[in-house]
Amino acid sequence: MVDIKFIAQKAGVSIATVSRVLNHSKPVSKKLEEKVLDTVIKYNYYPKSSDRFNASKRTFMISILIEDHINQFHSEILPQITQHIAQAGYQALINIVGTSMKQKETAIHELTARRVEGIIALFHLDELSAKRLKSLSKVPFLHSEPLVKGVSYNQINYDASYKVGEYLISLEHKKIGCVFFEYYGKNCYLDARYDGFKQALKDHNININKNYFYKSDIRMHNGWNIVNEISKTDDRPSALFCVSDELAIGMISALFQRGITVPDEISIIGYDGIPLGQQIKPRLTSVYQPFEFWIKRIADVLIAEIEHENLEPIREEIILENLPYIRICESCTSPPGLGSGVYGHE
User: Fold this and answer.
1) Which of 94, 201, 319, 327 could form a disulfide with 206 if both were Cys (CB 3.0 to 4.6 A apart)?
2) What are the residues whose beta carbons fall under 8 Å from the beta carbon of 151, sequence distance 6 or more?
3) What is the separation, in whole angstroms, between the first and last Cα of the chain?
4) 49: pLDDT confidence band, cut at 50, 70 and 90?
5) Reduced to 3 DSSP states, what percent helix, strand and coil does the chain have, rounded to the nearest 5?
6) Would 1-49 and 153-289 be classified into the same CATH topology?
7) Angle, CA of 239, 241 and 243, to the nearest 5°
8) Secondary structure letter of residue 22 according to DSSP
9) What's the pLDDT tens digit per position in 110-135?
10) For residue 335, which of 166, 206, 170 has the smallest C-alpha distance?
11) Full-model pTM
């Protein structure tokens, strides 16, 4: 019988420690918490057996959790993921949650009461937070990491952003900067974008001037704040990499209002490849993500877990077409007086 005593024995901890982890009654070390959560997940233990679903009363509902700052990228992926879910005979419920862990835990409890059969979280979670939510969910729970054997989403973002650095260097830029986001901290895909880009500059002996690196939220309106800083100095970067398209689009608009032309005075490159970037002038050069592949993969894996199907055929090897690539448009060019670089526009 899988009970709290069984979990304590398997985890090598006391029953009191298991209780503290599951109920948040008293703090325990991160190492102990992770050990207990790993055991809970492994043995599918939930204290209230009455919460288990009756297979004859299925709801066929899947919850898509999104944090309360919905952006343009979400507006692109939500219709696709709901379509994939519907084609498999399930109904997608879109649920907006706050950014705190407590708010997310409350949402999981509410979804359990509504008897959803699976949960997809479309936001970053560190490893321990993901394990905690998974231990609470009582149903298959996935967060937005690519589900391909041997592939790290962080590494994909790192590699693509490294290529951004190489691309700007190929255009003969020397004064290169970045607008990055630190909210999630280490081991986040946004942090990987920053690290990959910065490493490319180091590897090609480009001076990393801290005055060309700006911290910002990734939403569009924050581009104005960065442009305000840029406009106050004559020592400006000639090229900037923004870790999201929304931020890059906001900057292009703000630069125009300030009389600073893109790309003649400053080149801008984004990341995501949202359609809005192709509707502005100049069109945004960006790292395009083939998100259709990844969204379908997340939906397929979750439904396979719900239906207790073999996951191996789904975890196929990734191919080149599934990786991000730089879609070159008009927002990047060589600095004034230099050549046009080795890349051409679409």
Assistant:
1) 201
2) 318
3) 62
4) very low
5) 45, 15, 40
6) no
7) 165
8) H
9) 898 888 999 999 888 888 888 889 88
10) 170
11) 0.76
CA distances in angstroms from 231 to 179, 225, 234, 235, listed in the order given: 15, 10, 8, 9
In the chain, DSSP assigns E strands to 61-67, 91-97, 118-121, 141-143, 176-180, 213-215, 239-242, 267-272, 285-288, 325-327
Q: What would the CATH number be for the domain defined by 59-144+290-320?
A: 3.40.50.2300
What is the CATH code of the structural domain delimited by 153-289? 3.40.50.2300
Is the preceding peptide bond at 282 cis, omega within 30 degrees of 0? yes
Tens digit of each residue's pLDDT (9 = 90 or more) over 247-279: 999 999 999 999 999 999 999 999 999 999 999
Peptide bond into 263 cis (omega under 30): yes
Token pair, residue 307, equals 């239906």
- One DSSP character per residue, 187-218 reads SSHHHHHHHHHHHHHHHTT----GGGEEE--S
The C-alpha atoms of residue 67 and residue 73 are separated, in whole angstroms, by 13
CATH of domain 1-49: 1.10.260.40
| Cβ(130)–Cβ(143) below 8 Å | yes
